[in-house]
């Protein structure tokens, strides 16, 4: 992922901002007193991108990937609508408990920009639901230039989204979060329709660290800088997630990206090991016998 990349990450203040004032009340409403559902994964299972992750001779990357991780952020679905049979194949290649988190097709978000998209959404969901219980939260990523002047489109889309399918939304135009009146209106819509507010932690766009949850699900897209600070950043996230667990969060969906994606599995493994230690989870640590820090 190139979004928010920088040339000199050592010059960035990566400290996590304090929670938005309303996040604690949202978590209180979710009222989960047990262990949250936690899914950690990469953005893809490509052998080309995740170089060095797959054993020599691996014939089916997804089948192997699913033995190491419990989830994947499915970015391929942004570029085209796959037929139902493809989703069915993916379903059968993965074990019980594995989940896919597909990105909505770009025709919805970038071309039509949420206007007159009902038929496209129906076509997309007709295929995606073939993942059955392995279908995690779908997510909508809007273009950086999609601004609050089109707020009505967001509200109409939220109203029309089928309530039985979990949805998360990522906005990239700075005014969605840094114009107080717009942000408050947006949070109200997302809460009303039980839509998760994605947090993007990327080096060059610290303005997007709103730390505002809108339901009991934290959906975090973490972009490393291929720098030693990536590990201390993840340490901070573990502390924040521990706090959110204590406050009653239901689900944590955390996906790791790198500009050089071959390092994503290693960072993910580090995060999972820290979550197991600090949150009391028992998640598989990918390729545990080969894990070591890069820096």
Your description of this structure?
It contains 10 helices and 9 strands. The protein has a single domain, classed as TIM Barrel (Alpha-Beta Barrel). The mean pLDDT is 93. It is of the alpha/beta class and 295 residues long. The strands form 3 sheets. A 4-stranded parallel β-sheet has the order 1-9-8-7. It has a 3-stranded parallel β-sheet with strand order 4-5-6. A two-stranded parallel ribbon has the order 2-3. The radius of gyration is 18 Å and the shape is globular.
**Whole-number total of structural domains:** 1
Distance between the termini: 20 Å
* Pattern of helices and strands: HEHEHEHHEHEHHEEEHEH
Q: Biggest sheet: strands side by side, in what order?
A: 1-9-8-7
> Low-confidence parts, pLDDT < 50 over ≥5 residues?
none
Task: Kindly provide the radius of gyration, computed on alpha-carbon positions and rounded to a whole number of angstroms.
Answer: 18 Å
Beta-strand content bin: 5-15%
CATH topology: TIM Barrel
| Tally of helical segments | 10
Tell me the CATH architecture.
Alpha-Beta Barrel
**CATH H-level name... which superfamily?**
Protein of unknown function UPF0759
Q: What do the pLDDT scores average to? A: 93
Output the CATH class name: Alpha Beta
Classify the secondary structure makeup into a structural class.
alpha/beta
**Biggest sheet descriptor:** 4 strands, parallel
Instruction: Find the count of extended strands (DSSP E, 2+ residues).
Output: 9
Helix content: 25-40%
